[in-house]
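FIELD: query
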Amino acid sequence: MNALCHYFAFLSLCQYNLALVAYATSIGEYLQHNNHNMFITEKIISIFAPHTCILCDTEGLVLCGWCSQEAFYSVPPRCYRCRAASAESATCKKCRSGSVLSNVWVFTEYGGVSREVLRRLKFGRAQAAAQDIARALDDVVPFLAPDTVITHVPTATSRVRMRGYDQSRLIAKEFARLRSLPYRSLLLRIGQARQVGSTRVERARQVDGAFRLLRRIPEKVLLIDDVVTTGATIESAAKLLKTHGAKKVHAAVFAQKQ
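FIELD: result
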């Protein structure tokens, strides 16, 4: 009889926990729909369905403080196009004719832990991972002038609708907060083409004319994105910014694919 009572008590507890998760999720969806702070939404849901560390399974964080110290291989300063060593990650002389970006700071290579962090951020609704990525970029990007405006390379709107947020925007806003610099959305993504598997030439064609301006462009801009492959997307965004008033455009990217 006692065993049966315990069994029904266990079932009731499971149902109660499921109800709490459903309730927290509905609150999160309401806040997202009404443009409230995404990290508040994340915290509410994580109370009932906490994240676990990618490496050690510690509950509560996507990447715990202990593991984050050893999780990534930080790339040395280099030209992001040809990967030749370059002071302050400046675009080298050889590549300068094909780039409008002065410097592109890349934190790590794409693969292993960095790939899993991005997968959770983009497909696992782990918005807290944006804070980990922003802190990583804060480590690699040098001092920026106080009048530098932080913005993001917009994700295709079809994927923003699917996820409920733009992961690059989350990263950029958190980076701006860490640096006490202004954040502004400067660009709107028009193109919807999926670039995975495309060649450099195909990518350049896909993103040609893929962005529109949202407001007046400041003189100094730092573009932030989660991943760079050929650089076609970030170059297209930077070119539009420079054409319409930006004198210096830098970029910071969490991971670079081969």
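FIELD: remark
The longest strand covers residues 220-228.
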